[in-house]
Amino acid sequence: MPANLPPQYFEVEKKYREAKTLQEKLVYLQELLAIVPKHKGTEKLQAELKAKISKIKDMIEKSKKKGGSGSAWYQVERQGAGQVVLLGLPNSGKSALLNSLTNASALVADYPFTTTTPQIGMMEYEDIKIQIVDTPPLTDDSPPWLYSIYRFADIIIIVLDAAEQDLLENFEFIRTKLRERNIIFDNIEGKNMKAIVLINKIDLPGANENLSVFLDLYKDCPIIPFSNITKVNLPLLKEEIFKNLGIIRVYTKKIGQPPERKEPVVLKLGATVIDAAEHIHKDFKKNLQYTRLWNDHGFSGQRVEKNHVLKDGDIVEFHV
C-alpha cells in the first residue's frame, strides 16, 4: 500500500533537515509523525520516525547531563491531573488568567511580551489539582519549542481580547499558525486537539458587540466569555477544563470502613475496575478476587465485574 504523503509532509521534512539544534529536529520529527496518514502503507515510516524521536530524546538527555546548553529551549514537566496550556497574542490577558485560575503570581502589565518563558500554576478543582501553563505570545517568529508545548498539552485555551476590533482576524491568525504545524482543534479538518476559546476582557467598551459577532460565526469548540477583573464565568471555565480533560475521579475504600470520597485516583474516561486496580498496584490486577462499588447511581456495595466501566465519583473496595 503506497504511503500517499501530503505535500505538507515534505515541507516539514525540509525544515527538519535544515534544523540546527537537536531540539528543533525533535519538534519537526514530532510534527512529521502527526502529519503521516495512519494506515498499513505508512507503518514502516511511522516506526522510523518514532525511532528517530527516541534517539534524539536520548541525545538531548545526554547533552543535559554533560552540562550542554545550546540555544534557549523550554519544556514543561507534567504535573497534576492534566496539563492546560494558555495560548494567545500579545496583551490578550493570559498571565492575568493564570493568576485568576491558580495561586500563581505571574507578572501582568499593559505592554506586550511580558511573558517570555513558560509560567506555571496549579488550579484547584474540588479535590484535584490541574496544571496551568502560561506561554509567551504567539507571533510569526515564535520559536519551535512553543509549538511543542502546545502539541503535547491535554487542552489549549485560546485567549482572545474581546475589545480588539481585529478579534476575528486574530483568531484566524492563531488557527492558521497552528494548522501550519498540524495542530488542529476544529471540526473542519478533523478534531485532534481539545481547545477552549476564552473571549477575555468582556468588561471593556465594545467587547459585547465583538463577542456577539464571534459567537455567530464560530461554534467548533467551547467558547467562554470572561473578565479577569470581574471573574465572571470563572467557575464555568474550571468546570469546562475538567470536562474536556476526559478524566474521572475514583476513590478507594478500606474493607470494614465507611465509604468516603478522599484522595481520588485520577483515570481516563472509560476506565474499568481492573484499570483502577492496576493503577493502584500492579499486583492488584493479578490477585484481584472481586470488587464492591458505591456511588450516587444506585450502587451501595454490590459486587461488580472487572470490566465494569467506572464513573466520576465512584468508590471501590478491592478484595485481593
How big is the Rg? 22 Å
N-to-C order of helices and strands: HHHEHEEHEHEHEHEEHHEEE
Strand content: 15-25%
The pLDDT mean sits at 87
Task: Quote the distance from N terminus to C terminus.
Answer: 48 Å
Return residue spans where pLDDT drops below 50 for at least 5 consecutive residues. none
**Structural class from helices and strands?**
alpha/beta
Query: Could you say which overall geometry the principal axes of the C-alpha atoms support?
Result: globular
For the sheet with most strands, the description reads: 6 strands, mixed
Helix coverage percent: 25-40%
How many H/I helices? Answer: 10
Quaternary assembly: single chain
Strands of the biggest beta sheet: in what spatial order?
2-3-1-4-5-6
Structure summarized in a few sentences:
With 320 residues, the protein is α/β, with parallel strands linked by helices.
